[in-house]
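Pipeline run #58 for the internal structure catalog. This entry was flagged by the ingest filter as a single-chain record with no existing model, so it goes straight to prediction. Upstream metadata was stripped on purpose; only the residue string is passed forward. Reviewer on rotation: M.T. Logging verbosity set to normal.
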Amino acid sequence: MGQWEEILRIKRYVWPLLGAAILAIASMAAPANVAAEELVKFKIVNGSSIPDSLTGKAGDPVKGRETAIHRKKGNCLACHTLPVSEQPYHGEVGPELNGVASRLSEGEIRLRIVNPKYSNPDTIMPAFYKTEGLHMVQKKWQGKPMLTAGEVEDIVAYLMTLKE
């Protein structure tokens, strides 16, 4: 057996073992169960609105726009059309959000982001500020809402700028 054949034989056996060892070490470093984040308590009024800010202050509409169009965060464009010309491929599953602030109050928009099932139990829109009662959540995301309270408020502030 030549030198190169010996090296290839060793690689065939060593690399899989090395990979398994690295994965084992990495899994020990990561916590097995992510602790649940404390969600801000909110009050739903008349079953259709969360009139009070989750953070106690107004959100930033510029940050809200960025979060709304971010493909890995808010990802509103996956289902909704927004006045965002720099992003192609707007969804058509949900209602168009152009002019949403003329159709819904700030509290109604907030509730639809927090948990749209309160307004429409049959909606396919996910709850962006909920940690319990969810299905098929990856382990690393269990106990974490999709958006923080601040991000919810930022998106609400952005959507409130969309008037007809």
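catalog note: Helices lie at 3-29, 61-69, 100-103, 106-114, 149-159.
catalog note: The chain is about 35% helix and 0% strand.
status: ready for reviewer M.T.
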